[in-house]
Specification:
- By secondary structure, this protein is of the alpha/beta class.
- Among the domains are: 118 residues, no CATH class; 138 residues, Rossmann fold; 110 residues.
- It contains 26 helices and 8 strands.
- Strands 3, 4, 5, 6, 7 and 8 form a 6-stranded mixed sheet that branches.
- The longest helix has 59 residues.
């Protein structure tokens, strides 16, 4: 018997055809469906590779084995008179026809339904991108008064001094952000281009600015040598460049000199107050300033350990220089993070944060950042919405380009249901800090509450694609998927979230909430028990534990945790009005009393 005839007899050729058709169909469907669930392209590549690898074993199996009424046997063990290979061949022929019909149906559906939708979406996206780019370029050419300070290079040759160059970059950004006529991109967005080899025009387009500030810092022998350059993001030409050198104690004066030179180069008009502030003498104890910059470098990492360590450096700074206003702002900001993010008992940190922020303003009444910190404290701990907004307004007047002030000012608007106002604040904050993941997460929450849930989910997915390890955007995506009744997808995302933040209380709580909603009560209670046990050793948010009880539908336990969260004045209690997982409590007098006690409108 020829090889071809033997291949036909053993159904190897049919197996090849069936396998290839099936594999093609799987790949096509996966390529269409998986992106809906934000599954990475690498997973799809893995599917293709596995199917390709499986082709040869499938053919070997068809050659070596035969299906018989008694099960699968080796071909050489089957009596030719009892072989059912012909019947198997007919079944495989029918299976090939079914798969071929499915493939043709999918091809038609893709060609006449999905393809036009994809093409329409591509055209819309290209149109939106073109319009957005045209607006950016028009705005750049019209005003030219928008800049981003890119991370300065550390020229000391010692990588342990990177924090100093980064810190001076941040302080220059802060100084420029206080100028009302100048739009300045926040450090969180500009910092993403550290070490980037992108052209100035490309960076300018991404950040929506007309000019970029670049430079380097050399710190040696008690002296600071500072080189800066202002580059047009439209023409890529140098608009201004200069070098400065001073004693370390005069580093803030040096910063003011650079800021003055930049504003002159782009013809920014300074108000009398702004001119006086920039021209005034600024001296600082070098050791105190060093401690402050070390603290800011750690604070910017936003982890529990880094914020605790940052607080120590800020406290060191004011011990060295008791009249150093920036040190007190750092203390306030560190305590705010520890309280709002649930790392410490609110009563242990918020009063200390308030005291530090107020003292910073006594030392420097023009510190808009301290006003912003006070506004956040009044919102999260004292539940004083009007005072919170007043402080944020003061911050925005003193530091018009300080994105965080606009972001925080959106929260009081959100809880009273002024979603349009909150979105406007957040959009302005995003304009000043376009790559901020915190702003994107908050914007997603507010958009969803305003009735734009699908768009919110899309924007949250986009944020996750930009920074897959930022937990807050992932948590918000899970919550919005649950609110949209997409429980299975939410659980998949929650498990990915927990894998990234296995020790993060908020991520564990979101996982417990999803488990409860998906019918896994034992697993949900195990997560809740884990948090209850942890609360015996350290502060653990009762509000987060309430989420798990809400997922289980346990009304009494949920109310008990919420009442404790209110009694402890937990930092995120004011946002109860926006927490959709507690909507099953609406109409309950105890829940209404909880909301009333913190000044949230009744449901």
């Amino acid at each position: 018997m020829s090889l071809l005839a033997e291949l036909k007899r053993r159904n190897v050729i049919r197996m090849a055809g069936l396998y290839l058709l099936g594999a093609w169909l799987i790949v096509q469907v996966a390529g269409t469906v998986l992106p809906w669930f934000a599954v990475s392209a690498s997973f799809l590549r893995a599917v293709v590779i596995v199917l390709a690898i499986g082709f040869v074993p499938a053919l070997v199996f068809a050659w070596v084995f035969e299906l018989t009424p008694e099960g699968i046997k080796r071909d050489d063990e089957v009596d030719p008179t009892k072989s059912i290979a012909p019947q198997t061949a007919r079944r495989m022929d029918r299976a090939i026809m079914v798969v071929l019909a499915l493939a043709l149906a999918y091809f038609g559906f893709d060609r006449f339904v999905l393809l036009p939708q994809r093409q329409h979406a591509m055209v819309n996206e290209a149109t939106r991108a073109g319009v957005a780019q045209a607006k950016v370029e028009a705005k750049q050419e019209e005003t030219g008064k928008s800049i981003a300070v890119l991370p300065f290079d550390n020229r000391s040759g010692d990588s342990s001094q990177d924090y100093y160059a980064d810190g001076l970059t941040d302080e220059l950004t802060t100084t420029l952000a206080r100028i009302s006529e100048l739009k300045v991109i926040a450090r969180t967005s500009a910092a993403r281009f550290k070490g980037s080899d992108k052209a100035p025009s490309a960076i300018g387009r991404e950040l929506g600015v007309a000019a970029l500030v670049t430079g380097s810092v050399l710190r040696a022998g008690g002296r600071i040598r500072y080189t800066a350059e202002l580059v047009s993001a439209v023409t890529e030409k140098t608009l201004w460049a200069d070098s400065f050198e001073r004693d370390e104690k005069d580093v803030l004066t040096l910063q003011s000199q650079v800021a003055q030179a930049i504003t002159k180069a782009i013809e920014v008009r300074l108000s009398p107050t702004e001119a006086t502030r920039l021209a005034g003498p600024h001296t600082v104890d070098p050791k105190a300033f060093d401690e402050y910059l070390r603290g800011r470098a750690l604070w910017n990492q936003r982890t529990e350990g880094s914020v605790r360590e940052a607080l120590q450096h800020f406290q060191n700074a004011i011990r060295i220089a008791p009249d150093f206003a920036l040190g007190y702002v750092g203390i306030a900001d560190s305590n705010i993070i520890l309280g709002v993010w649930g790392f410490e008992s609110p009563g242990d940190v918020f009063p200390a944060a308030k005291k530090a922020a107020e003292h910073a303003l006594e030392l420097d009444p023009g510190a808009g950042e301290a006003h912003a910190s006070l506004g956040d404290i009044y919102f999260h701990y004292y539940w004083d919405w009007s005072r919170s907004q007043h402080e944020h307004e003061q911050a925005m007047q003193l530091a018009p380009a300080f994105a965080t002030a606009y972001q925080w000012d959106a929260e009081p608007l959100e809880i009273v249901g002024d979603y349009a106002g909150a979105i406007a604040k957040l959009r302005h904050a995003q304009e000043l800090d376009p790559l901020s993941m915190v702003i994107r997460a908050q914007l997603g929450r507010v958009m969803a509450r305003s009735g734009q849930r699908d768009q919110a989910i899309a924007e949250l997915r986009e944020a996750i694609a930009l920074d897959p390890e930022f937990l807050r955007t992932r948590r918000e995506l899970v919550r919005q998927l649950l609110a949209a009744k997409r429980n299975g997808e939410a659980l998949l995302q929650a498990r990915q979230l927990q894998a990234l933040g296995s020790k993060d209380v908020s991520s564990l709580a979101i996982l417990g909430l999803c488990l409860g909603r998906n019918g896994f009560p034992d697993e949900a209670r195990a997560v809740l028990l884990q948090l209850d046990e942890a609360s015996k050793l350290r502060f653990v948010s009762s509000l987060e534990r309430a989420r798990i009880s809400a997922g289980l539908g346990e009304r009494e336990a949920t109310l008990k945790y919420l009442e404790k969260a209110v009694a402890d004045r937990e930092g995120n209690v004011p946002l109860l009005a926006t927490d959709e997982e507690f909507e099953f409590l609406h109409g309950d007098p105890r829940y209404a009393a909880i909301l009333h006690s913190i000044g949230v409108p009744k449901t």
